[in-house]
TrEMBL record:
Membrane topology, as annotated: Multi-pass membrane protein
Organism encoding this protein: Floridaenema evergladense BLCC-F167
UniProt entry keywords in alphabetical sequence: Cell membrane, Membrane, Transferase, Transmembrane, Transmembrane helix
Residues annotated as transmembrane: 6-25, 46-68, 88-104, 116-140, 146-163, 175-195, 201-218, 230-249, 255-273, 303-324, 330-347
Name this protein carries in UniProt: Glycosyltransferase family 4 protein
Predominant localisation class: membrane
Lineage: Bacteria, Bacillati, Cyanobacteriota, Cyanophyceae, Oscillatoriophycideae
Subcellular location: Cell membrane
Domain of life per record: Bacteria
Length: 358
């Protein structure tokens, strides 16, 4: 059965997260490891921030089950090349390292400089281990091999940037988990279509875990993923983009990760530019993110999250069409209509709030 192991990875990860998240939540409450509300945060009650533990366990367990059941040998009906098997563990171990950085921040509150320094070091090690953007397929130019030092810089910026972009959108119940789940599913489809079964296995495991986590994280949330979860998810998505998309020789491959992850990337970029324009540190937390702005217009918590989901689905559908997926343009048209519907709903709600305010 084609792609059986990808389905196994998805289901195992989802089941592990569904079963372990209540245990992690109970442990966090008993241990006092929860987040206290403040003026920047939307939640009104203390919330456990250790959900990333369950997401990581789900993804790791899924990959181990596939490995033990022979999935690395039969990922698409043939022996998975050792280099691709190595890439799976490279991304997984890199995700573990970033998970530990985020977990340390959750528990001990690291400074912005310390976090960034350790992130750059770990990303550099991931590059050394093979998770690297070694060449780019450029339109009208073709294949461009990058000098090692340029490859290192581009790879580190991509990995560290996506880690922080994912962490920065984790501001509403279910937002980061849902956006990342949509991105992981799109990456799974594109990787399978482009003949990258190893990267697709990672995406399948992550997607299953995130969808399982939404059972407890969607509004009203019972638990947060915390920095540990956000860092792990961000690195894993970025890693799949490197080993599954950018490394292919198709000209479209260079833009696919950016399309799929457009929402967190553009949100982070806009916030950084805005902070610098106002003379603020780009690392100084504020309420200038897209979700904060939408909440500020009077949108409900759920409508804000669902609207950003629709943006992510739309960007992902463009990636499907751009990659040449069968019926990709139809999916893009459907996603455009869906986005249009939610834009209309948002406009209706904002107009209603303004009238009530007058």
């Amino acid at each position: 059965m084609p792609y059986l192991y990808h389905l196994i990875a998805f289901l195992v990860s989802a089941l592990v997260v569904l079963s372990t998240t209540p245990i992690v939540r109970k442990f966090g409450l008993q241990s006092g490891l929860f987040d206290i509300p403040d003026k920047r945060k939307v939640h009104q009650h203390p919330m456990v921030r250790l959900g990333g533990v369950s997401i990581f366990l789900g993804s790791l367990t899924a990959l181990l089950v596939v490995w033990w059941s022979g999935g690395f040998v039969d990922a698409k009906g043939a022996i998975l090349p050792p280099s691709e098997e190595y890439e799976i563990w490279g991304v997984t171990l890199g995700g573990l390292a970033f998970f530990l950085i985020g977990l340390a921040d959750d528990l001990f509150g690291l400074s912005a400089f310390t976090r960034l320094l350790v992130e750059v070091i770990v990303a550099s090690l991931a590059w050394k281990a093979g998770v690297q953007i070694a060449f780019l397929s450029m339109p009208l130019i073709g294949l461009v091999n990058l000098p090692p030092w340029i490859s290192l810089i581009i790879t580190v910026i991509w990995l560290v940037g996506m880690v922080n972009a994912t962490n920065w959108i984790d501001g509403l119940d279910g937002l980061a988990a849902g956006v990342s789940a949509i991105a992981a599913v799109v990456m799974l489809i594109v990787c399978l279509f482009m003949g990258q079964p190893a990267a697709a296995l990672i995406a399948a495991a992550l997607a299953g875990g995130l969808i399982g986590f939404l059972r407890y994280n969607f509004n009203p949330a019972q638990i947060f993923m915390g920095d540990g979860g956000a860092y792990f998810i961000g690195f894993t998505l970025a890693g799949v983009g490197v080993v599954g998309l950018v490394k292919t020789t198709a000209v479209t491959s260079v833009v696919l990760p950016y399309l799929i992850l457009a929402v967190p990337i553009l949100d982070m970029s806009a916030v950084i530019v805005d902070r610098l324009r106002r003379g603020k540190s780009p690392f100084k937390a504020d309420k200038r993110h897209l979700h904060h702005r939408l909440i500020g217009t009077g949108l409900s918590h759920r409508m804000t999250v669902v609207f950003i989901y629709s943006l992510t689905i739309w960007a992902g559908s463009l990636a499907l069409a751009f990659a040449g997926i069968p019926y990709g343009r139809i999916y893009a048209l459907g996603a455009t209509l869906l986005l249009g519907y939610f834009i209309w709903k948002v406009w209706q709600q904002i107009t209603k709030m303004k009238k009530e305010g007058n």
